[in-house]
């Protein structure tokens, strides 16, 4: 071999060291900031944005604890989430996708809100639909303390959400913790948002964007500094 011949690793030359995720799903309990972060990320990353449907005709009745409304609200969410994710067509459209929900999260609320008979029927539909659901490349799980979530619910001022009890907020928060403690279907970045605000404070957002330019493998935790 000539002394002046330089050998290159073909893999390192042709492939980037880090391949950004094509599909990011953002999750977390009520008013943790999923939709706000999804909107910002989609704008900054020039991605398609898919937001969870809030136009549920049974939601106000559910918050008002009307009998039977929990099952109707849950089934409406299930079918809407299935419809939205079924239309992704990731193989046909190479653009990046950011959405503010994970299909599997539907079960979190079903287990909290449905009685045993309703849950049996719900699970039949969920299991049938879940078989064809694609899996995100990265899930960002936003955490916050229950008291922080409750303050954000009150701050938003939605008349229907004002009926949500502190006990329900805490139950949802605990259910999310339990679910993501065992989650392994995608790479997972866990972010505590109790002391930060991606919308109001640019530094918090920039810190997260810098983190997302690095690989996330398995389950990793991101603890932003927050305000100084």
Taking the alpha carbons of the first and last residues, their distance comes to 59 Å
Mean pLDDT figure? 86
CATH architecture: 3-Layer(aba) Sandwich
The low-pLDDT segments are 1-13
Major sheet size, sense and barrel closure: 6 strands, parallel
N-to-C SSE series?
HEHEHHEHHEHHEHE
Brief digest:
The chain has a single domain (10-222), classed as Rossmann fold (3-Layer(aba) Sandwich), CATH 3.40.50. The protein is built from nine helices and six strands. It has helices at 10-14, 34-45, 59-63, 69-86, 106-113, 116-130, 146-156, 166-181, 202-212; strands at 23-27, 48-50, 97-99, 138-143, 187-192, 219-222.
List the helices and strands and how they pair.
Blueprint: H1 10-14, E1 23-27, H2 34-45, E2 48-50, H3 59-63, H4 69-86, E3 97-99, H5 106-113, H6 116-130, E4 138-143, H7 146-156, H8 166-181, E5 187-192, H9 202-212, E6 219-222
Parallel strand pairs: 1-3, 1-4, 2-3, 4-5, 5-6
């Amino acid at each position: 071999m000539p002394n002046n011949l330089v050998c290159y690793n073909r893999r390192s030359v042709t492939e980037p060291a880090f391949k950004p995720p094509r599909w990011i799903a953002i999750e977390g309990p009520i008013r943790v900031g999923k939709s706000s972060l999804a909107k910002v990320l989609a704008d900054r990353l020039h991605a398609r944005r898919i937001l969870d449907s809030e136009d549920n005709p049974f939601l106000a009745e559910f918050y008002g604890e009307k009998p039977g409304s929990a099952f109707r609200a849950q089934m409406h969410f299930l079918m809407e989430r299935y419809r939205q994710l079924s239309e992704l067509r990731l193989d046909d459209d190479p653009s990046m996708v950011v959405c503010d929900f994970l299909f599997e999260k539907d079960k979190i609320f079903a287990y909290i809100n449905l009685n045993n008979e309703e849950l049996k029927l719900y699970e039949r539909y969920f299991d049938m639909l879940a078989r064809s659901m694609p899996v995100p490349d990265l899930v960002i799980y936003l955490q916050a303390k229950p008291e922080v979530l409750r303050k954000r619910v009150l701050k938003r001022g939605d008349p229907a959400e004002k009926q949500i009890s502190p006990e329900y907020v805490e139950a949802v928060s605990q259910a999310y913790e339990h679910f993501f403690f065992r989650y392994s279907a995608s790479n997972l970045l866990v972010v505590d948002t109790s002391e930060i605000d991606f919308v109001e404070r640019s530094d918090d957002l920039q810190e997260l964007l810098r983190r997302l330019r690095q690989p996330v493998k398995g389950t990793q935790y991101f603890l932003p500094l927050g305000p100084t």
